[in-house]
Target: protein-serine/threonine phosphatase
Amino acid sequence: MGCVHGKCCSKYPSSSDGDSDHHREMRPYINKHILTQRSLELVPVPSHNFNLQYSILTQHGYYPDTVERENQDSFCVKIQVQGNPNVHFFGVFDGHGQYGAQCSNFVKDRLVEILSNDPTLLDDPLKAYTSAFLATNSELHDSEIDDTMSGTTAITVLVVGDTLYVANVGDSRAVIARKDGNQILAEDLSQDQTPFRKDEYDRVKLCGARVLSVDQVEGLKDPNIQNWGDEESQGGDPPRLWVPNGMYPGTAFTRSVGDGTAEKIGVIAVPEVSIVQLTPDHQFFVVASDGVFEFLRSQIVVNMAAAYTDPRDACAAIAGESYKLWLENENRTDDITIIIVQIKDLSNMGAGATDSGIDYRPMIMRSVKGTHDMSSVSESETYASVRSGLSDIQQSCQHSISMNRSAAIVVPSPMRQRPLQLVGHSSYGCGLA
Model:
């Protein structure tokens, strides 16, 4: 959910789909997929003797008023970050505004490049992550792309051995599936950053933002009522951010990369980072744009993904269902991008794992005069999220896993008949979605 007019504030230029290189160490796992004629890839993590098997799908959104509008989602998979066979990166970037596609593609390229060039990455992944986001944001401001009213959200997962570092800016989402007896449970790895969250609401209000739904801005509802219920019941007309005396920018998220105007009222590029210690109970994780989660809860997405042995089929099924629900509830669909990464052959390492299989490391990230550092806390303190703070807020302003594989139904775009694009990816697969 992006700017006030969805993701189409104005007409967009068309662009061609990108492609990707193939790394010589990537190994095709099975035959090419029936829908895409691409091979499924298997990525080894030798330090802990397990594998990651993944697939990516992006579905162009349908906007009846701008039928030729380009897909503003982009994605990036970089295998062997810094040449390390145990470090891998997965990211989805959801652009918005007139130049949203340019913003998302700029960020998916530069973010992973900055991480790859940071010598402190493996010593201090949390600090490196935050520094990379802030540097990318600054570079986007200084680039030739007009990000005054455009930008991108970002949901990324950095795999370092058997540990996941999940950095989120915006309202896309990462979810991990954990086996619990006969059930597969969905556990969110990120928390949507929107005005529905009281902490984010309070922060942007202090930065001068007006927080109102579209109906409130247009005078159809009382603007003094600052309670919008929950996101699932009010998703159609959510609270948005507006400048004090204007009808813009109308963002439904409180963090983003870019968005120079929104930055002045508290929309920041500082990521929230969570840390997960993998265990054999973890089956797979999903990284997806909010086009997937607008009408599908995390548990439903995990249930659907668990119903397929092949992640390509799972991607197609989830994207197809999301697309269908968009058309049932709106006269358009959002762009939809999803990465499913299966965790294969992970043995019981035991070290650092909690009973739930998630080890939220006892660290918090804080900001001191605009700089970000790490501070250790007591081992008895456990955090469900490692959140980046700001020192100067005004300045920074149930299915069975073993089901037989079957081809998923693909929902074509109305009037366009453009099929889903299912992408088998590569060592530096930072694709144009």
Observations:
- The radius of gyration is 20 Å.
- DSSP finds nine helices and 21 strands in the chain.
- Residues 91 and 405 are 26 Å apart (CA to CA).
